[in-house]
């Protein structure tokens, strides 16, 4: 059996197993499914989290902010206070949320996807992936749940399970893992597969044997819009430079001291001899 057939068989077994008893529609605790911005916010909250936690955070956001525009102009620290600093990846998540909403507004001049939807589903993927702060999971879920397209969200937790199942390699990123699933899952089945896999990872979390090494191998496909990263790099460089400068100065001082000692020794030799001769 070829490697491709092995992967197809592994995906088929996984899907058949996980679809038993899984929800057939987006859980009611995630409301407002007719609003693409609501689906976007929920998708960002679901990434590297669970449905229950995302639903709680979403409800707090809706109660706190007047509308999506109010959420867009709020600082990440304000949003983090609402969802809670202990929410998974809270700081990074809130920075991404703001960056993505700002990106949508700059393109649409409103909180919606009017021009993106008019351009067609093929263009939607490029549109979403180009937004600052976007991660593969959110882009795929927006295509699937927000716009009814062919997408399959994969975050680090699901990817590690796919590695354990032999479906993707350990070096694969989230986007690569999603692409593997998309090749073997029909568009008509994608939503049911996503809901089944999401319910599974909600229940079991990341594989225990691999979760400890997750941070070092994470490949989300987009760097976080972090403020202060240049400052941190500059500070590190400055410290390294100071350390090298200090070390160099210390080495030069030692060399100078040795040279001075040798000169003094040479000078004292003749003077001592002369004094002795005169005395005699």
Helix content: 55-70%
Which descriptor suits the 3D outline?
Answer: globular
Q: What would the average pLDDT be, to the nearest integer?
A: 83
The total count of strands amounts to 0
Through-space gap between termini: 106 Å
Outline the structure in words.
The model is unreliable at 211-217, 228-247 and 264-280 (pLDDT under 50). Helix 2 (36-46) crosses helix 3 (51-64), helix 5 crosses helix 6 and helix 8 runs antiparallel to helix 9. The protein contains 15 helices and no strands. It has helices at 3-18, 36-46, 51-64, 68-73, 76-83, 90-108, 114-118, 121-129, 136-146, 156-164, 174-184, 190-204, 208-211, 214-217, 229-279. By secondary structure, the protein is mainly alpha-helical.
Quick structural overview:
The chain is mainly alpha-helical and 280 residues long. 69% of the residues lie in helices and 0% in strands. It has 15 helices and no strands.
List the helices and strands and how they pair.
Blueprint: H1 3-18, H2 36-46, H3 51-64, H4 68-73, H5 76-83, H6 90-108, H7 114-118, H8 121-129, H9 136-146, H10 156-164, H11 174-184, H12 190-204, H13 208-211, H14 214-217, H15 229-279
Q: Which structural traits does this protein have?
A:
0% strand, mainly alpha, disordered C terminus, 280 residues
């Amino acid at each position: 059996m070829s490697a491709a057939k092995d992967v197809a068989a592994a995906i088929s077994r996984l899907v058949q197993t996980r679809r038993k008893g899984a929800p057939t529609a987006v859980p009611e605790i995630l409301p407002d499914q007719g609003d693409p911005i609501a689906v976007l916010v929920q998708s960002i909250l679901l990434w590297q989290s669970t449905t229950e936690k995302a639903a709680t955070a979403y409800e707090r956001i809706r109660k706190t902010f007047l509308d999506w525009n109010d959420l867009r102009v709020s600082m990440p620290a304000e949003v983090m206070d609402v969802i809670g600093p202990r929410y998974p990846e809270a700081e990074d998540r809130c920075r991404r949320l703001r960056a993505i909403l700002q990106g949508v507004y700059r393109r649409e001049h409103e909180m919606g996807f009017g021009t993106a939807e008019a351009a067609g589903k093929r263009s939607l993927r490029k549109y979403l992936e180009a937004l600052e702060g976007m991660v593969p999971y959110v882009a795929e879920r927006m295509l699937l749940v927000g716009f009814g397209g062919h997408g399959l969200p994969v975050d680090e937790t699901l990817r590690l399970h796919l590695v354990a199942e032999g479906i993707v390699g350990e070096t694969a990123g989230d986007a690569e893992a999603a692409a593997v699933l998309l090749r073997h899952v029909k568009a008509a089945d994608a939503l049911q597969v996503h809901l089944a896999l999401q319910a599974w990872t909600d229940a079991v979390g990341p594989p225990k044997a691999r979760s400890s090494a997750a941070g070092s191998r994470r490949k989300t496909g987009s760097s976080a819009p972090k403020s202060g990263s240049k400052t941190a790099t500059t500070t590190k460089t400055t410290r390294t430079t100071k350390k090298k400068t200090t070390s160099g100065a210390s080495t030069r001082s030692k060399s100078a001291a040795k040279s001075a000692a040798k000169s003094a020794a040479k000078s004292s030799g003749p003077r001592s001899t002369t004094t002795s001769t005169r005395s005699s």
